[in-house]
Design a protein that fits this description.
19 helices, Enolase-like, domain 1, DNA polymerase, domain 1, Ubiquitin-like (UB roll), globular
Length: 494
């Protein structure tokens, strides 16, 4: 149960730890109080730290640093990794370049959020050779500040990079080979186990080990990134008796690119799947930027976003529209299930005891098909959907000849809109499209009213999204006002 911490090459032991302990709790209990708890839900970024992991590139081991929300990451998941906190940046009393840039640009006021911003900038500093405003905003998408207005922090990012070529690099770049060797020595080939006062933790490395553990312990809670499940610990103050972490299972980390489909292991993070997803479904790129913040995408897994059976998960509607299939495993047996059949009721699935998601099989689009996605939320990024719509459509001379539409946030489960599909396949004109879509959606859904939106709003905005999508397909531009530049280019603005 060891990992590397900051500039210490000697591995640190987690010791006798409750498996329900978060990274943030462990840090603050060990006098590393720079990381702050603001929300305990991965929303504000005050707790941001960076995790370094070994990855294989061209047959060689290299090191990748990723920002994470320590408030919703379990400490046991640090085993074999390198954790860097704000305390580990300065050297011999000299500030790290990103820290110095924050000072020079007056990027801090009350200071509560500052350590999290610094760590996000540190990850940006290590992961990019060049930067622009889009990259900065993307990397800071999980950090909130109520004081600065963000401009000084953005200026600090540019300043840190401007000085990158003028110095010899930071501790972590100069000592990368040494850090890699230390992590290789920490690499475990066997299942990591720990127990604490009646609670248990298993982190297997092979799918057969995982199957055996779950067969013997069908009530165990499976966790990968844990960006959703950890909220039960931090918000509801629950304590799981048995946690099985699947992050290290080799077979669940694979991506198989076949001619007609992509099969993604359930424990593949959104960060790791990013390049493959946008390669075959380009419309996913702006959508995924709104899926969550950078720290969330670094840690959250595609399988977890499905397995939690949330009605507001963003990927299930997309995958349902794409006719995705789940490969489920129990013991040594596997079965294939259409994703649209996987969800039974609110937070309920057809998984049997001891069964788990092994992978997600996603058919690629044909040359005649389009995937169109919309997400409505109160905040542009790092926010939960009020309504999420995904539509896969095939056109012939501006007439819809095949369509599949799925929604999130409109029912107890992510669900296809079959009545709407039939409506869209019929003959209609744009004058009555909105009315017909509204009637069909009322037949498909009876949305609830909650803190995010009323039932009336959900029905109305879903109708508007359908109308907008179809009009765009018909060649009539309907702007996305969230994208000012797109809108201005269409109306002749600067």
């Amino acid at each position: 149960m060891k990992f590397l911490l900051n500039q210490n090459i000697e591995a640190v032991s987690l010791g006798g730890i409750n498996p329900n302990t978060t990274v943030l709790q462990w840090l603050r209990s060990n006098d590393l109080t720079g990381s702050k708890e603001g929300c305990a839900s991965g929303d504000c970024g005050a707790c941001t730290a960076v995790v370094g992991e070994l990855i294989a590139v061209g047959g060689k081991q290299t090191l990748e640093y990723k920002s994470i929300n320590t408030c919703i990451a379990l400490a046991c998941g640090l085993v074999g990794k390198h954790l860097v906190t704000v305390e580990g940046l300065s050297e011999n009393g000299r500030l790290h370049p990103v820290q110095q840039a924050m000072v020079s640009e007056h990027g801090s006021q009350c200071g509560f959020c500052t350590p999290g911003f610094v760590m996000s900038l540190f990850a940006l500093y290590h992961n990019e050779t060049t930067i622009d405003l889009a990259k900065i905003n993307n990397n800071l998408s999980g950090n909130l500040c109520r004081c600065t207005g963000y401009q000084p922090i953005i200026n600090a990012a540019f300043l840190a990079f401007a000085s990158k070529d003028d110095n010899e690099g930071d501790y972590y770049s100069r000592n990368q080979k040494q850090i890699i060797r230390a992590l290789v020595e920490l690499s475990h080939t066997d299942t990591v186990r720990c127990s604490y006062q009646g609670t248990h933790y298993d982190a297997p490395v092979g799918i057969d080990q995982l199957s055996d553990i779950l067969n013997k312990n069908p009530a165990a809670r499976i966790i990968a990134g844990g960006t959703d499940l950890s909220l039960d610990i931090t918000q509801k103050l629950q304590e799981f008796e048995h946690i099985v972490n699947v992050q290290r299972v080799r077979e669940l980390q694979s991506i198989e690119d076949r001619e007609l489909e992509l099969e993604i292991g359930a424990a593949v993070s959104f960060h790791s799947a990013w390049s493959n997803l946008i390669k075959y479904w380009p419309s996913l790129e702006p959508f995924l930027h709104r899926f969550g913040s950078m720290p969330i995408r670094n840690w959250a897994t595609i399988g977890g976003n499905i397995a939690n059976a949330s009605p507001i998960g963003d990927m299930p509607p997309v995958l349902i529209a794409l006719n995705a299939t789940l490969r489920l495993r129990k013991g040594s047996k596997t079965r294939l299930v259409k994703l649209e059949d996987y969800f039974v009721d609110y937070k309920q699935t057809l998984l049997e005891g001891g069964e788990f998601i092994q992978s997600i099989i996603i058919p690629k689009l044909s040359s005649e098909e389009q995937l169109i996605l919309h997400k409505i939320s109160k905040r542009f990024e790092d926010d939960i959907s009020a309504v999420c719509m995904a539509i896969k459509v095939r056109m012939d001379a501006r007439r819809i000849i095949d369509v599949c539409v799925a929604f999130g946030g409109m029912a107890a489960t992510p669900k296809r809109a079959t009545h709407l599909e039939q409506t869209l396949l019929q003959n209609w004109d744009k004058a009555n499209l909105k009315e017909l879509a509204y009637i069909a959606l009322k037949d498909d859904f009876s949305p609830l009213s909650d803190i995010r939106a009323s039932s009336k709003y959900r029905l109305q905005v879903s109708t508007n999204l359908v109308q907008k999508t179809i009009l765009n397909l018909a060649g009539e531009f309907v702007p996305n006002l969230a994208n000012v530049y797109e809108y201005e280019s269409q109306i002749g603005g600067g």
